[in-house]
Specification:
By secondary structure, the chain is an alpha+beta fold. Helix content is 27%, strand content 31%. It has nine helices and 16 strands. Strands 1, 8, 9, 10, 11, 12, 13, 14 and 15 form a nine-stranded mixed sheet that branches. A five-stranded mixed sheet has the order 3-2-4-6-5, with helices on one face. A hairpin with a 5-residue loop joins strand 14 and strand 15. Helix 3 packs parallel to helix 5. The longest helix has 22 residues. The two termini are 41 Å apart.
Length: 334
């Protein structure tokens, strides 16, 4: 985790909607996007891709995805040369287009432009205008955090949009009853356990498990969002509520990698994001998790919503991104 650690794991990170140029194409007539989830098409000349500019892009977008048991890139990159950037590629879900020209004035200026739904929908298109490859690399590196956030938000919004179309409609009312707000949860997830202050929701398949924990507890100290307090409460709830397959086993926070807390703001909702690894005490199961911790509406309780994944046969980046995205659909209910 080199560059991406600096981008995603800062002390305070604010995720906001990226300002985009309005596309001229009628959105209702646009085709659906192509490409796999987590894939980014980079339009750049071959010499630049094999040189410094390409190295900068790879260092940022293909850096190690944080807090996964095995190494996986943040995004899967596909390079296409400008001469080959035809209609087949223009409908890709995520496009980073390097418009490198010796006369940047004709491009408006050396800058970065964010646009949505240019050739397809829902599409994220990021264009870098520059006079040469070194300048393009510098612009990309300077705007690294904004670029990553734009791509993350685009991927996240697609998941939430799909979930809203295929939603487990029985779960949001149960969540609201416990915490006063809810998230949208994909069809296939089922309620496995519920107590007065803990809820376990999961989509169990033969070789994978995507789960959501929701729990709450009273505010008892002045620093509830420190990594020590968050992990202590997490371990307390998991030991009491999430047993393993054998007697004396239970889910807990792995000590292999110290979890990291980042303070976030997304669409007006403030929370402490915790990323880390989980394991089962006295067993050989584990995987990644990410949680959102925040105050309830009157500030007397801490609410935690957590996404976690168990997929020993598969890469876990996209499984976690799918489940984590649903946490971002949280909204209070009056």
């Amino acid at each position: 985790m080199r560059t991406i650690t600096k981008i995603l794991m800062v002390a305070v990170a604010i995720i906001t909607a990226v300002s985009c140029d309005s596309p001229t194409t009628n959105k209702r007539l646009l085709p659906n996007i192509s490409g796999k989830a987590g894939e980014v098409l980079v339009v750049m000349r071959k010499d630049d891709w094999n040189g410094n500019a390409g190295n900068v892009v790879r260092d940022i977008l293909a850096d190690d995805c944080p807090f996964l048991p095995q190494k996986e890139p943040l995004y899967t990159l596909v390079n296409v040369q400008p001469s080959g950037f035809g209609n087949m590629f223009k409908v890709h879900r995520n496009i980073v287009y390097f418009n490198i020209s010796a006369t940047p004035d004709s491009l408006g200026s050396e800058r970065i432009i964010f646009r949505n739904d240019v050739w397809a929908a829902p599409q994220c298109m990021i264009q870098i205008n520059s006079a040469n490859a070194d300048s393009a690399a510098a612009i990309f590196q300077k705007n690294a955090s904004v670029i990553v956030n734009a791509l993350e938000q685009a991927e996240r919004d697609r998941v939430i949009s799909n979930v809203r179309h295929y939603e487990a409609v029985n779960l949001p009312p149960v969540i609201t009853d416990m915490i006063g707000g809810t998230i949208h949860i994909a069809n296939g997830y089922e309620l496995k356990k519920k107590t007065e202050n803990f809820m376990w929701i999961a989509d169990d398949k033969q070789f994978s498990n995507q789960g959501i924990f929701i729990y709450k507890y009273p505010v008892t100290n002045d620093n509830p969002f420190s990594v020590e307090n968050i992990v202590a409460k997490r371990n307390e709830f998991l030991k009491a509520n999430v047993p393993g397959m054998f007697d004396g086993t239970y889910m807990m926070t792995s000590e292999f990698a110290t979890p990291q807390v980042t303070f976030m703001k997304y669409k007006g909702h403030e929370f402490a994001e915790t990323r880390g690894l989980w394991e089962v005490y006295n067993d050989y199961m584990g995987g990644p998790f990410v949680s959102h911790s925040f105050y309830n509406q009157d500030g007397t309780e801490i609410i935690v919503m957590e996404a976690w994944v168990y997929a020993p046969k598969y890469d876990k980046r996209q499984y976690l991104r799918q489940t984590e995205s649903m946490l971002y659909s949280f909204e209070w209910k009056d």
